[in-house]
Amino acid sequence: MEPHLSHQVADSVATVVIRNPAKRNAMTAAMWRALPPLLDGFARDPDVRALVLTGEGRTFCAGADIGAFQESLEGPQRLAVAAEEALAAFPKPTVAAVRGHCVGGGAQLASACDLRLAEEGALFGVTPARLGIVYPSASTRRLVSLVGPATAKYLLFTAELIDAQRASRTGLVDEVLPEGELDKRVAELTRTLASRSLLTQAAAKEFADGRRDRDAHWTAQARGSGDTAEGVAAFLERRRPRFTWSVPTPE
Question: Nearest-5° angle of CA 98, CA 96, CA 121?
Answer without folding.
Answer: 15
